[in-house]
C-alpha cells in the first residue's frame, strides 16, 4: 500500500489528551489494506471524518498482518473497529471466492493440479 501518509492537521473534534488513551487495536491482513483504505491510504481521511476516530497503521515485520490502531472516544472506537472488521471480512471472503472461481476455471481447462 506504500508508505503511510503524514498527518497535516489535527481534526477539530479531537481532544488530544483524552482521545489518545486506551486505543483499540485490530489486526488486518496486509493484502487487504489497498481494498479497504484505497491506494496509498486515500480513503483514510474520509473514514476518520465519518467515524470521528483517528486511524494509525503499523505494519508488523514478522507477519503478513498490519495493526490498525483506532483512537477516539469509547463509542466511536468500538463502532469504527466493528466497521473495519466487517469490511476486512467482506474483502477477505470476496478474494477467497475469486480464488475458488479461478481454481474451478483452471480445473475446467485442465491447467491446474
From the helix content, strand content and strand pairing, which structural class follows? Answer: alpha+beta
- The helix-strand sequence is HEHHEEH
Number of strands: 3
| Main beta sheet strand tally, sense and closure | 3 strands, antiparallel
State Rg: 17 Å
End-to-end distance, in Å?
Answer: 32 Å
Overall body shape: elongated
Helicity, as a percent range: 40-55%
Segments where pLDDT lies below 50 for 5+ residues?
none
Number of helices: 4
Largest sheet strand order: 1-3-2
How big a fraction of the residues is strand?
15-25%
What do the pLDDT scores average to? 81
List keywords for this structure.
3 strands; 113 residues; three-stranded antiparallel sheet; alpha+beta
Amino acid at each position: 500500500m506504500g508508505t503511510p501518509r503524514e498527518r497535516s492537521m489535527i481534526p477539530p473534534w479531537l481532544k488530544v489528551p483524552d482521545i489518545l488513551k486506551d486505543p483499540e487495536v485490530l489486526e488486518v491482513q496486509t493484502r487487504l489494506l489497498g481494498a479497504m483504505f484505497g491506494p496509498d491510504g486515500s480513503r483514510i481521511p474520509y473514514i476518520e471524518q465519518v467515524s470521528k476516530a483517528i486511524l494509525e497503521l503499523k505494519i508488523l515485520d514478522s507477519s503478513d498482518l498490519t495493526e490498525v490502531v483506532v483512537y477516539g472516544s469509547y463509542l466511536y472506537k468500538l463502532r469504527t473497529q466493528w466497521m473495519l472488521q466487517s469490511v476486512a471480512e467482506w474483502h477477505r471472503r470476496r478474494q477467497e471466492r475469486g480464488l475458488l472461481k479461478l481454481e474451478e476455471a483452471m480445473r475446467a481447462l485442465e491447467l491446474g493440479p
